[in-house]
Design brief:
The chain is of the alpha/beta class. The chain is built from 29 helices and 14 strands. Helix 3 packs across helix 22, helix 8 crosses helix 13 and helix 15 crosses helix 18. The longest helix is centred in the middle third of the chain and has 36 residues.
């Protein structure tokens, strides 16, 4: 690797025969202030005055229809539920049942009315791809925060997106940033190697940069804020990606053009579709997102208008507005409800909207993709983090100056998790009422004087009618999505044809029904976990299709199975009809271990794909950017083990010099300010006689301390190899 001369860096050859300088991993700094925002005070003097009309007639009409229909359905359902229990008077327990029913029923009515509006809007218009802009006038940064990811996967995706944008002829208007918060020392070194290799493949024309942050303060939000405050001044806009994001060149260039054309826009969000999934669980999610997602997103976009939300990735942001108004405060108190704001994206959307900038979605843009967890346990791990983040929003709901739509987005996210314990409580109250009616002799006349007894009875006929109504409302978003897919010729054919599409939808409904009670218990556990004051932490997300050990599945779901068995026994003792009513819930819980295991299998998901089931258009004909990303990841060794980072640094002098050049400027420390990791690493390096001896003593934190310190790196490089390794090298 003849890339360096004596005491410095020499020009290097890229894969295309040109020269490239790898000694700098980041451009010149362009600082921006990002003041921390107050949740309790907002100065109207900071408000951005819109240049045009804000609320359109279509948006106002959509709001009236969606919220009006949801309200009407909720009133109807409440009345019907009251009539179900109001047979001879309503007991306190029955009032509790009505209250819990209203909470859960109102939630599904809003989803139903919103998807209806989305269905109608898509049914009578045919979305056409936006024309590629002829030119752009401003510079956009494309940033991808990464945290302990497999380097081959993320660098392959970034290169594939880069090549797509270059192919549009507008690539000169974009700079590319991989922003690492990685804490694993071996992955950190592998990231730098992947970055160097990508720069050599792309050549000098590619303005692609890499930065590793020594301390991942405030997690992803802090990572983005660090970029904005240090380099954001050079970029009017930034496209934010996730580590699993893929976007077409057309989508990114169109977002940049839309932002340039709309000076009032603060954030423009796309609709990411799920891709690259292979396990049964992930393919069910992928199918549901593709078939039902467009209808739901269209309805959401219709009522949000320019008062929308941000999902944290696959979106473009006005950088200076973001810096001026989206500095996140620390919530008072300790985690889980205090500390760093976890679900930062909702809060950033609310703050930038509070400042007068528009936040909206382009649901028809296309070319925006992401991946999803491969198994139920992986989803549960991610859901736990999201649950804590959304429950934190209870602290932000009363913030000063927020638009009512922003509060609605917060409320929607909060209820997405509180409905699970609410549903569980509704089931428990229902079981207690049935038990009371079956085993406890009713006290028709209480000690209080009354002319009429309190009869513990239900109207069975109305109960069946209400159950049927609830099921229809619950399933309508899926029905609307399926009908639209059947009407759209291209979607229908690419999903396996009408018959396979209908069979796939029925299969998805059955799987959702079996998974729902498991997710109810999982999310109820998450909520209880946080109410008792436990923090979730920040673990990297598993993105591959490798199966989870069966013992781990049993350990995670054994309590769910036990509760299902107890529910079955109790139901049989109380009333066989109760078991019939609760059969989907009981079956899902008893089969929890089997369902979690079988849905996480790679072979079963692939087998259904071969049969043409759960097929999506993006599976039938993969977008070129996805094909390119996957092929690059395979070529770069996405399945290979990551080597020992310190050993790599020791053996490769050229890479060691580049690594030192990429380190951020060292902050001058105060005398006596020594971290335990640095001190222990320094002591172990001093005491070691060989490299292998030192490596066997160092833990991950100490290894990271060495990688971040040039003095310790020098000491590492001076350690000799064992004699056997030296002889072999000779």
């Amino acid at each position: 690797m003849d890339l360096v001369s004596g005491d410095g860096f020499s020009p290097q050859r890229d894969d295309r025969g040109g020269t490239i300088d790898l000694s700098a991993s980041m451009p010149a700094e362009a600082l921006l202030d990002m003041p921390v925002q107050s949740l309790y005070h907002f100065d109207l003097a900071d408000w951005h005055k819109p240049s045009g009309r804000w609320l359109s007639f279509k948006t106002a009409l959509a709001r009236v229809v969606i919220f009006g229909a949801a309200g009407a359905l909720t009133i109807y359902g409440t009345q019907q539920m009251y009539e179900v229990v109001n047979v001879g008077g309503v007991t306190p327990l029955e009032w509790a049942l009505v209250f819990l029913f209203v909470i859960n029923f109102s939630w599904i009515t809003l989803a139903c009315s919103s998807s209806l509006v989305g269905f109608v809007s898509l049914l009578f218009r045919s979305p056409k791809p936006a024309a590629l802009p002829a030119a752009l006038s401003e510079k956009t940064a494309v940033v991808m925060p990464i945290y302990n990811e497999v380097p081959a996967r993320v660098f392959a995706a970034m290169q594939a997106i880069f090549e797509e944008v270059q192919a549009t002829g507008l690539g000169a208007h974009f700079d590319w940033f991989l922003l690492s918060d990685t804490t694993d020392p071996d992955i950190f070194v592998a990231e730098e190697q992947a970055y160097i290799a990508m720069r050599q493949r792309i050549g000098p024309a590619g303005r692609i940069f890499y930065r590793h942050r020594p301390k991942n303060i405030a997690r992803k939000a802090g990572n983005i804020a660090d970029f904005v405050t240090t380099w954001g001044g050079s970029y009017p806009h930034m496209v934010v990606l996730d580590a699993d994001s893929i976007m077409t060149g057309h989508a990114i260039v169109t977002l940049a053009a839309a932002m340039e054309a709309d000076p009032d826009a603060g954030i423009i969000q796309t609709l990411p579709l799920i891709i690259n999934r292979n396990t049964l669980f992930a393919r069910v999610q992928q199918f549901a997102a593709r078939i039902y997602g467009p209808v739901i997103a269209a309805g959401l976009s219709a009522w949000m208008g320019r008062d929308g939300n941000y999902w944290g990735h696959n979106a473009i942001i006005r950088t200076k507005a973001f810096a001026a108004h989206c500095g996140l405060p620390q919530l008072r108190g300790r985690p889980p409800f205090g500390g760093h704001i976890l679900s930062h994206d909702f809060v950033e959307a609310a703050l930038i909207r509070r400042a007068g900038y528009a936040v909206y979605m382009l649901p028809d843009l296309g070319g925006s993709y992401e991946e999803s967890p491969p198994s139920l346990i992986d989803l549960s791990a991610r859901d736990r983090r999201w649950c804590q983040g959304n429950l934190q929003h209870l602290r932000i709901l009363p913030a000063s100056g927020l638009h009512w739509a922003s509060r609605q987005h917060f409320f929607t996210g909060i209820m997405g998790y509180l409905t699970s314990p609410s549903w569980m409580l509704q089931l428990i109250v229902g079981i207690v009422l049935v038990f009371q009616a079956s085993y406890i002799r009713p006290e028709y006349f209480s000690n209080d004087f009354t002319l009429f007894p309190a009869w513990p009875r239900f109207d069975a006929e109305k109960s069946l009618e209400l159950f049927a109504t609830t099921m229809v409302i619950l399933l309508m978003p899926k029905v609307f999505g399926l009908l639209l897919a059947l009407v759209q010729t291209s979607t229908r054919r690419a999903s396996g044809g009408s018959i396979r599409l209908i069979i796939s939808a029925l299969f998805e409904v059955i799987m959702s029904a079996l998974l729902a009670p498991i997710m109810m218990l999982i999310q109820t556990g998450h909520v209880a976990h946080f109410l008792f004051g436990f923090d979730t932490g920040w673990d990297p997300q598993r993105r591959d299709d490798g199966s989870i050990p069966f013992k781990a599945i049993v350990r995670r779901h054994r309590s769910h199975v036990a509760l299902g068995v107890l529910s079955l026994i109790a139901g049989l003792l109380i009333s066989p009809s109760l078991v019939a009513w609760m059969s989907p819930t009981i079956a899902g819980l008893i089969l929890a271990i089997f369902i979690s295991w079988v849905t996480g299998l790679l072979g079963l998901g692939v087998a259904l794909r071969r049969l043409g089931l759960l097929l999506t258009p993006e599976e039938s004909v993969k977008p070129p950017v996805v094909v390119r990303s996957n092929s690059l990841a395979d070529a770069l060794g996405v399945r290979n083990e990551i080597p020992d980072g310190l050993r790599t640094l020791h053996q490769d002098a050229h890479f060691r010099l580049l690594h030192e050049a990429y380190l951020p400027p060292r902050r001058k420390r105060k005398r006596g300010e020594i971290t335990p990791e640095w001190a222990l690493a320094e002591a172990k390096l001093s005491d070691a006689e060989t490299l292998d001896e030192a490596l066997s003593w160092l833990n991950p934190k100490e290894r990271m301390a060495i990688l971040l310190d040039k003095v310790l790196i020098e000491r590492l490089s001076l350690l000799p190899l064992p004699q056997a390794d030296t002889a072999e090298a000779a």
